[in-house]
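anyone else get weird line breaks when pasting these?? whatever heres mine. first is seq + C-alpha cells for prot A
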Amino acid sequence: MNISKIAFKEIRSSLRNTRTFLLMLAFPIILMLILGTALSSAFTSGVKVGDMRLLVNSTMTNSQLSTSWHGFAQVLEQEGVEIVQMNEGIDGQEEVRTDRYTAYVELSDSGIKFYGSSKNTIESNIIQGILTIFADRYSLTTAAIQADPEIAQSIAISARPSGEFINETTLNRDKQPGSLDYYAIAMTTMIALYSVTSASYLFRGERTRNTAIRLMAAPIYKSDIFIGKIIGCTFINLLCVLVVLLFSKFVFGADWGTHYGLIFLVLLTEVLLAVSLGLGLSFLFTGEGSRAVVMIFTQVASFIGGAYFPIGDTEGFMSFLTNLSPLRWANTALTQIIYADNLAAAWPAIGLNSGFAAIFLIITVIFMRKREAL
C-alpha cells in the first residue's frame, strides 16, 4: 500500500512540473523533425542522373569504324544521350570545363580520347563506361574479322542495350529506414536515456527540499520508499517515451513495424536502466558533482550511440566505444526488429539493459543501507 502511494506521489509531482514534462516531449519531437527533414538526402538510396550531353570531334577515315560509330551513336541518342558534332573553332575541353557539355570525345582511326567533367562525375562516368564498351566491342569485331569473317557477322557492334544503363540488384532486400524513420527511433531511445536525469534527483531532491527527514520519520520502510520511487519514475518516463513513439508514428508517419511487444520491452528495459543508473550516480556522487556526471554521460552516450547522426559499422577502438552506449544497443535492436524482422536481436539489448539495471540497483541499495537518512 505504501509503495503504491509513493509511486502515485512521484507521478503526480512529475505531472505538476509541466515545464519539465513538456520539455521531455517537445525536445525529441522538434529535434526529430529538424534532423529528419534536414538530413533526408543522407538516407536516400537513389541517385538522380542529370542530362548527358556528349560533344564529339570525329576525324575517322576508316569506313567500318565510322559505320559502327554511327550505329552506336543512334542507340545512345535513343537512350537519352544528346550527341553534338563539334564545329570548327570550338575548344572541346573548354566546353566541358565550363559545364556546357558532360563530356568531350575525340574519335580517330587510332583510338578514342575522352575528356570528362569533374562537376558531373556520375553522368561523365556513365558516358565513359559506354564508350569503353564500344571500343572493346569494336576491337573484338576487328580481331574476329581477321580470324574468321563469318564469326564477325554475329557480333553486333551497335546492339542496343536492354533497359537502363545501370541495373541495380540488391543482395539484401530488407527494408531500410528513411530519415524520419531513423530519427523516430533515435529520439525515442534518447529520451528514454534521459530518464537518468529525473532519476538522479529522486533522493537528492528530498535532501534538497529537507523532506528526507520527514520521510524517514514516517512509519514507512526504507525499502517501500525505494521501490515506490523507482516505479513512479519508471512509469512517468516510459509514458513520455510512448507519447514520442506514438507521435512519430501517427503524425510523422514513421515506420515502427508490427512487433510492438518486443519494441515495448526494449524501451521499458532501457528506461529501467536509465532510472537505475541515475539512482546509482546520485549516491556515488554528491551535490553538483552528480548533476555534472549525469549531463556528461547523457550527451556522450547520445553522441556515440547515434542519436544525432547515423553511425555505421565501426572497427577497433571506435567499435568498442560506440558499443558502450545503451542507445547503440537499443537502436540496433529496434532497427533489426522493425526492418529485418529479426526478433532475436531484441534479447541482447533487453539482457544488457536488465543486467546493468540490476547492478546499479544493487549499488544503490548498498549505499542506502550505509546511510541513516535517505
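and prot B, same format (seq, then C-alpha cells)
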Amino acid sequence: MSEQRHTALGIHSAQPHDDSPRPQHPQRGPILRRAKFVGAALLALLLLGAIVTLALRAVHARALLKSASEQSRLYVTTIRAQAARSSEPLTLPGTLQGIIESPIYARSSGYVVRWTKDIGSQVSKGELLAEIDTPEVDQQLSQAVAARQQAASSLDLAKSSADRWEALRKKDAVTQQEFNERSSAYTQAQANLAAADANVRRLQKLENFKKVVAPFAGVVTRRNVEVGDLIDAGNGGAGRALFTLAQVDPLRVYVYVPQAYAQRIRVGDPVAITQGELAGQIFHGTVARTAGAIDAATRTMQMEINLPNHDNKLLAGAYVQVGLPLSGTSDALLVPSNVVLFRPEGTRIAVADNSGRIQLHTVQIGHDLGNSLEILSGIGVTDNLVLNPADSLNDNDVVTLVQPKLAERAKKVTP
C-alpha cells in the first residue's frame, strides 16, 4: 500500500523513527474543549448546589430557631378584677324547719291499744293521738292505794295513842320518855301517810299518760307505732318516739354566714327565700336572731330566719336558697373562677406586670358565686390577672400578654 493510501486512511506508515513533529488528529481539539466545558459546567453545578444547600440550611436553621423561640414563649390572657356591688345579696343554702318540732314519747310503759292520727294530720293542742294499755301501772296504783289505806289506819292508831299518853302525862301517870315515844310514832305515821299519798298521785299521773295527746297545734310528720306495739316509757334508745309533731306556720331556717359577712347582717333584715321546685316564687322572711359569736371550727355564725307559711306552700325539710342583704360597703373584688391556682402553700392568683413578669399572690376567697369568686384580699383592681394559668407557672416567669375583649370579659365576670 502506498504512502498516499496510508495517509488517506490515517495509518502511519512503518518507517524509521525520526525527530520531526507528527501531525495531530483533526477532531481532538474540539473534543478536549467540549470536555473542559462540561467539566467546568459540572463543577459550577456542584458549587451552586453546595451554595444552595448551605443557604437552605441557614434558612431552615433560622426558621427552626424562630419556631422554637415562638413555641417557648408562653402567651397568656389577662383580666382585671371588678369591685363587688354592695347591694348584691349573699346567697346561702338552708333547710326549712317547723317553728316547733318535737318527737312525742310515751310516759307510761305498756301496749298500744289504738292510734287516732296518721302522718299529715292537722291536730289541735290536747287532741288525742294514741292510747296505751298499762297493766303494770294499774296494779301499782292499786297497791299504792292499799298501802295508803294502811298508812291512814296506822296514823289513826298513832294519833289516839299519842292523845291518851298526853292525858296520862298530864296526870304524871307515865314518864316523859314514854310520851315522847308515842308522839314520835304519831309523827312517823303522818309522814308515812304523806309518802303513800305522793305515791298514789304519781301513779295516777302515769295513768293519765295512757292517753298520748298533742302538746301543741301542728301537723303529724311521722308515726312510728302500730296497734300492739310494746312501748317503753321515756326516750331511751333510738326510734322510741311514737309521733313527730311540727308546727309549720311560721317556718324557720338556720343558715351559717361566713365570718367575712357576719358584721354586715342585722336582726330584722328582710330575707328573700327561693326553692328550686317553685320557680319564679319568692318568699319573704326576716332575720329573727343570731348566735352572736363565730364558730371556731367553721368560722361561721349561725342565724335564724322566720318565714310565714300561711298557705302551707312550703314544706318542712325542703332545701332552699336564702338571699341575705349585706349592709355597708364591701372591699371585696369579683374575679372569674378560672384565675385561681390551688397550691400547697394556699390559694394563689397569678398577676402579670407590664413587662410580662409573673408574681403569684396569696388571696383570701370570700363567697363562691359559681362562675365568679369574691376575693377579700391579695389583689387590686389594677392588677392584670392571668386567665386559665398553667399549673407549671411560677414566680418570675416571663410571659407574653394578650388583652381580651373587655366587654366579653366583663360579661363573664358578672355573676
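btw re prot B: Residues 102 and 245 are 5 Å apart (CA to CA). Confidence is low (pLDDT under 50) at residues 13-17.
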